[in-house]
Amino acid sequence: MSTSYDVKFWEVRRNQSSKTASYEVRWKVGGRQKSKTLRTKALAESFLSDLRQAAKRGEAFDMETGLPASMAKVKNAVTWFAFVLAYVDMKWPHAAAKTRDSLTDALATVTPALVNESAPGKPEPLVLREALRQYALPPASRQARRPEVIRSALAWLERHSLSVADLSKVRNVRLGLDALTLNLDGGAAAATTIARKRSVFYNALQYAVDLEELPANPIDKVKAWKPPKVREVVDRRVVVNPVQARELLTAVTYVGRLDRGRHLRGFFACLYFAGLRPAEALGLRVQDCHLPATGWGRLVLAKSKPQANKKWTDSGAAHDDRGLKHRAEEEGRPVPIPPELVAILREHVDEFGAHEDGRLFRTSRGGVISIGTYCEAWKAARHLALMPEQVASSLAARPYDLRHAAVSLWLNAGVAAPEVAERAGHGVDVLLKVYAKCIDGGSEVANRRIDDALAA
């Protein structure tokens, strides 16, 4: 097989020779031009991204097929089980820890269902899941010593996994879709869980289409199966008003051992007054903060610290060091902050200083604060600051609801949607879709207009 590291890419372009919309990916390997046409621009850009990532990792490209080594491995897989292992290998190097977690979770759900149904001796569901999730799917875990029960389960999967070609049949792909709807205990899975896992399953099958191992994505042929609807808007009942937010921030200072609560006050204040995501606040450094003695200040966000299981991170630490969500690598996001937050952060720096890497919020040993730690403090603060009926409600039930409150406040204050989206790190379309029910006054304005029309 002749290979080359001399690879060149062009941007995706609309296929002008086709009456129906399609998009062409073009690249060159060792001087030989290659192309592939896909149905949508998103699919084409995804395929091109996979090619570019492979080149960035220094993979050799096959001059005949034009594919890098990792993609050729996926293409050459015969069974679904072998395909899944190769697919994970291809996706893993440039995936975030949470993406890896979600990827393995979904594939460990569908893969045990995509087997010969008449094959005897199928292992217990919990055993198959552990075998896939802990030993087979994570690349670094494949060389780990396997208990006999795990070896037997994986050997059974290798023997009885359906072929990739079998997935072109609707009845087979339904087996995978039906598996997504159930938890291991047989109960119904949450709508968000089903949607997330279906997306992974769909993308894996689409990759088989891209490699011409399937003629079309078989999920598109399944007409009788519909995923449950997922709530995509923020429930306005979780949104606190400014008075409640300030009472909660004060209450936080009274919880926890030693000075933990006082330390976390600035963290929660960033979520409310600046609309930061928790992972963005955990990555906030003193050098990212412009905190004048008077007036508005500014944060220039550069890093985030999302939490994930150590198994899914490259470093082996519980928190990834990532760029910002929906931003190119190294692209920052400026966020103006009101004088109240400027004062809180100045007080925080005066009392607690910063870690040697500049981080404002950290544990007593300099580590990254865990989700469990700040959620525990938040739960205690709600009991101190809210009435019993409010504690029992969904009002600010999660720290993330402070961000929802911030964005809702900005929109209701009349700040233009593009400006709110820029500060929050959203697209405008997503912003208005997610926060549509948190914008006050819409019903009253509509009622007045209808009254005026009726009176005419």
TrEMBL record:
Gene3D superfamilies: Intergrase catalytic core (1.10.443.10). Residues 235-452 form the Tyr recombinase domain. GO terms for biological process: DNA integration; DNA recombination. The keyword Ribonucleoprotein does not apply. Residues 311-332 have a biased composition (Basic and acidic residues). Residues 307-332 are annotated as: Disordered. The keyword Kinase does not apply. One of its GO terms (molecular function) is DNA binding. PANTHER family: PHAGE INTEGRASE-RELATED (PTHR30349), PROPHAGE INTEGRASE INTD-RELATED (PTHR30349:SF64). This is Integrase.
